[in-house]
Amino acid sequence: MRFTWFIRAIWLLGGCAFLLAGLREICLRPTPLVNTGGGKQWVSGGFQSGGTHSTTVQGVLPKNIESVGSYIEGEAWEGTAKTRWRPAPYGRMRVCVAGYPRTPGCALRAEFRLADGTVSRVACEIENPKEQWMAWDFYVPSYANPATAFRLVAEDRTGQPTGWVAFSQPFVPVSSLTVALYQSAQVLATLALAMTLVWLPGLLAAQLTAAAELRTAIVLALGPLCLAVLGLLLWLLSPWVRPESLGAVYVLLWGGLGVWLWRRGPRWEMDPFAQRLLAIAALCMLAAVAKATYSSGPEGELYGGSVSRTLAVGNRSDARVPFYTSLAIELGLAPNSAELEQYYTPWTFFSRGPLAGLAAAPVVFATGGRPSAAPLEGLTWEPFDATGYAAYRIVMIALAALAIYALFAVLVPFVGGKWALIGGSVFALCPFVVHETSFTWPKLVATAWLLGAFLLAHQRRPLASGLMLAFAYLFHPMALLWAPWLALWAMARAGTSWSDRLAAGTRFAIVLVLVAAPWMAATRLPVNLPTTSAAGQSLFLRYFALADWQPATLETWWYTRCLNFSNTFFPFWLYLKNGALSDINSAYHPAGPLVKFAFSWWNTLPLGMGLAAWAVSLIAIFGAVRRFPAAVFVLLVGPAVLLTAYWGVSPTGLMRECGHPLLAAMIGLAIFWLARTPGWLASLAANRAGPWLQLPETFLMLWLTTLANPTPPIVEIKSLDPVWFAINLAALAAAALLAARARAA
């Protein structure tokens, strides 16, 4: 009963996301300080309404605030603009600015008529906003000689390409605390909506079948595929139908799930351990969202201070790649168009799988997102931005958390619910998984589908297993690295005769090829831009022959593979022996020792798993080698060798590159052996203190470099940072508490 109401509460909260999106412009609408009425009624001079470059994006400009600019049939026009003198308000004022007010010959200033009759001037000194609207805040003089009136003055005296300026009506901004509270409510409601749309369809439909492996496949597949199909329809219809105009469709999808949820009654045909695991997964999603809603990150964070901040240091911009699907839908761009390719270059849309971006798009638009053509790194960070990037991030977090359930579901038929919950909770709370859930690239969701494919192969369903693997590939190409091992497992489970084994392998391969081959063929489409040097997946296929991004010789090939192996599997090796590697630095400047050490949490297996969990798992794996050598080879040793041979382009460790399934396999094999081998190690692994012992390393991974950042980005909406910090800690602590209680059950 409690689980049913837990699900219903999430569904109801998800519905609030539609309401909050619709009311956002009303609740956060400022009042202009000058007369409105259109065009030049509030301003004199030659600037015109709409006088901005065609690519200028809304940014922070409220929709009810008018603006004028000097971009009139190009940059060559010159002139001035002045607002009328108006009574001066008290306190802070805001003017939204676009263009290049700091270019020589251009200027924007506020003038104040003071009580003694003199005039003071405040120049706009913000960095040139270029083709987006940015906020310029200033304070009205209010001391011994206060201001009685004010006006704005803008000048454009240059015809240079960067010689235009635009400004808005002045207004008193809504307080940053009010904005933070409203946007935080949107974050929580959107998380509930994403959980509803990603998880609930599968959880409901899974009750209709008795086969455990099919229930698992349905939970993993139905929600993401329904969203992806809806995203594809939005894209196909985008030339004729604006995605934001389909609000009724999004509400109907949510409402239909609610009707189904309420009609099925209060009881769930679900094991109590599965219910607890789902609650742990939900808490981990909340923790990841809370970390992403904290305004600051580590020193040198990639795109720090912008909407597309990656929460990590390094040069990996992959986290935002699926978001460009929403941008393509918003702008009505074809997947192979030059206009879209410029966002992916040196890659293309076809370089990675399409499903993650398609699945995220409906939630982006349902919650009011309007992706912008402006560079994402130039858009100032907000907890819930108007471009929809925060909504996209939340959906990706909900998708990534499917891997937690997938590992649990795979373990249940082998070890039962209690040990499966131990394995799932260890996986959920380890530093690497928490980091990768927040990082929002689709490698964890691809891992979830890989685990589902393994379960189907084990249950002698090679056709369905090949299909699951194919869809895992359509989330991320790394899934194909596991194809030979899944094929071997499917063949071994088919029977003792070679004819049965070959038949199973053939069925597995046929469906994999039928689904994956068309996408592979699409990756061969010609490119449009000279900067696109890694078209499709051609570079991925060459990784076997590269060493540190260069064509490998025999010597450099062995060196980089040995380096990568040691950096991956030996604790502290990356930091102590190879800390000078260029790839463990910020994209902007050399990283400090603390930031370099942090790379070990997502590049190396021991720290990524957590040292205590790694030590226990390692002992268990050595025990499993003696009793289950074939399983250890097919699921762990063989894949580790293949991944090491494959990934040498960056020798800093392969965990974040393609080691996500490897971590799941190691935990799964360790749990499998521990559940069958009573003794001191099994008792230690099942101890209630286990989840609590994981938390210190995970907390350090999340917060050490963030709290130690001496130069956090300058953002306006950060007043609730302490609240989101507390939510993150509380959510992970609650997940550990649930996991600990389940161990005592």
UniProtKB/TrEMBL annotation:
This is Uncharacterized protein. It comes from the Bacteria. The chain crosses the membrane at residues 187-206, 218-238, 244-262, 274-294, 390-412, 470-492, 504-522, 605-624, 630-649, 661-682, 723-740. Signal peptide: none annotated. Keywords: Membrane, Transmembrane, Transmembrane helix.
